[in-house]
Amino acid sequence: MGNPQKQSAFDKVEGFIRKTLVPVANKVDNNPYLTAIKKGMVVMTPVLLLGSIAAIFPSIPEFIKTQAVANWFETYGYIFSIISKVSLGLVGLYAVLAISYFLSENYKLYTVGSMMLSAIAFLIVAMDVDENGNIIASYLDSKGLFTAIFVAIISVKIYQFFTKHKLVIKMPEGVPDFVSSSFELITPTATIGILFIVIRAVTDSLSGGVLLPQVIMDVLAPAIGSLDSLWIIYIVLVLRLVFWFFGIHSAVLSPILSPIAVQYLSENIAAHEAGQPLTHVITNGTLSAFANFTGSGVTMGLVIAMLISRSARYKKVGAVALLPSLFGINEPVLFGVPIILNPVLMIPFIFGGAFVGMLPMIAMKLGFLNFPIFDPPYVPIFMEGFLTGFDWRAIIIQVVQIALSFGLYLPFFKVLEKQELDREAENIAKSNQIISDEDEQYLTDIDF
Predict the structure, then answer these.
(1) pTM of this prediction?
(2) What are phi and psi of 360, to 5 degrees?
(3) For a 10 Å CB count at each end of the chain, is N or C smaller?
């Protein structure tokens, strides 16, 4: 694979990564808490989709300027507000239910009971009432998302402790399972209720009446807010691609990124509905549509380079990879070229791919592209970019991404192509030599 000295240097880097990064990634991927968070955030997808649609539809009268449309929205427009409230307005509550479900499933606990315990605990610390006794649900939305994560883990762990140490009420044999499971919940429910009431009281006392979700948000604000920095975005994208390069799915980072991405999208949608400026560029939609455009590392340029290659093998790989790339799937490129553990493609894939992937985010910051308000479902490239912010300019920027990707990968691919052409020529020469030797032997046999 080139210069032996460079190969040796690459081997050292690979060895260092495998000793340090890979074990950490494996631990993260196998951690039950992080796995539950990751799965729980995935469950949020239809909720966010519904909330995004509710935010988009009220804009229809601006594009279809007819009296009938205006009258319909004036009469029934409140429906979209309701949809927004029951989707994005309760995303924190949905998150605590989803995370507690997956975590309790891991511990083989009564899942419905775990969800109920976590919901009770979350509502105790995140809900408030006014002087008339009306519920104030301000922190049941994305502002309560990180509280939901902590509450779900603590509640399920308490339930597990009580179950493991047999500190639950056991019913006699013959009692239906659902009845027995309900009675088992009595002692952990009482403990969790008391614990979170105390947490609520202590928080109120120390913060002057500020609820726990706001306290947690204030503590995490520097870390959460930093993800909107272009430098931090680039570092995150590089780290995702480093994982991919060493054969580790970048989903190991989703327990950290997904809650922030969900919160950012919810805040952008809320700002859009209120007619206020949008501020966040990182959502699951932008990561999929732009950072992973045509696949992690924006590998469409490499696919095009292979399609026009003189190498028969790379032409075949390019042909196989083209269609999946149009849907953001590039495993045929990652494993077929391969990119994974290929020192020649390390620089364009990791560092170049991260830069090309964040190009639309730079455009958002400069005002050349709408901020995201939608996480599109599984759709082809270009359409996904357009739907993310409903901005046709996304298509132009993605064409630029392809051009940059091609220019970035081409010189490195030429190194691989030459190596492959040399191998193909060598194989042909060997084949011809074998044929020549067989012909010579045949003539010798005839002479004999």
Answers:
(1) 0.81
(2) -60, -30
(3) C
